[in-house]
Amino acid sequence: MSRPLLVLGTANRKKSEELAELFAPLDLEVRSLSDFPKAIRVEESAATFAENAALKASRQAANLEHWVLADDSGLSVDALNGAPGVMSARFSGPHATDEANNRLLLEKLGNLPIESRSARFVCCMALADPTGAVRARSEGACRGRILFEPRGTQGFGYDPLFEIPEYHRTFAELGIAVKSCLSHRARAARAMYPELVALLDAGAW
After folding, report:
1. Do residues 137 and 57 make contact, with C-beta atoms less than 8 angstroms apart?
2. What DSSP designation does 161 have?
3. 35, 71, 72, 98: which one is catalytic?
4. Cβ count near 75 (within 10 Å)
5. Is 72 annotated in the active site?
6. Per-10-residue mean pLDDT, the chain, length 205
7. What is the pTM of this model?
8. DSSP tag of 35
9. Phi and psi at residue 143, to the nearest 5°
10. Residue 118 phi, psi dihedral angles, 5° rounding
11. Are 99 and 107 spatial neighbours (Cβ–Cβ below 8 Å)?
12. Hey, which bits of the chain come out as E strands?
């Protein structure tokens, strides 16, 4: 008998690998949008991470007619009144790159001292069934601070700038094993885990 299929609502390879690892203990076939030529691009037009996650999960699930788990995540910097927030991926414009976003963030923070560079990563997840109905939601956050220059080569996005003070390392230095325990996405995934188990046990798939 084939395993239940869970489609991750992202085509980002590193994010897909991270999530697949987190959900590995479940007896699921986990795939990403890059495996589906008919996957659509869902505009992240909502005002919050939670609303964007639900939007992406619902529309993609109805389009693919599969269970879809989508997330919306980003960086909230206290000194910038929560920016870049939901604009994290497009912080430096519609054709933003990780490097351009990081440069702009450093420019905006300028010479602010390290104690004034507090920030948190936030991740909201939503799970939708093949009809597009959202069946579960979760959220996770991780606090840290923004350094003055990038450090580390692992991870993606703002990872090279985001330091966990207790470890004196950025997400890009810690690597996937440690990040899979500490990150906002890991915490949201752990909060989603019992929801997935309950739906699987109930034969919802």
Report:
1. no
2. T
3. 72
4. 27
5. yes
6. 89 83 88 95 92 97 98 96 95 95 98 97 97 98 97 91 95 83 90 95 89
7. 0.88
8. G
9. -90, 150
10. -65, 150
11. no
12. 5-8, 29-32, 67-77, 118-128, 134-146, 162-164, 169-170
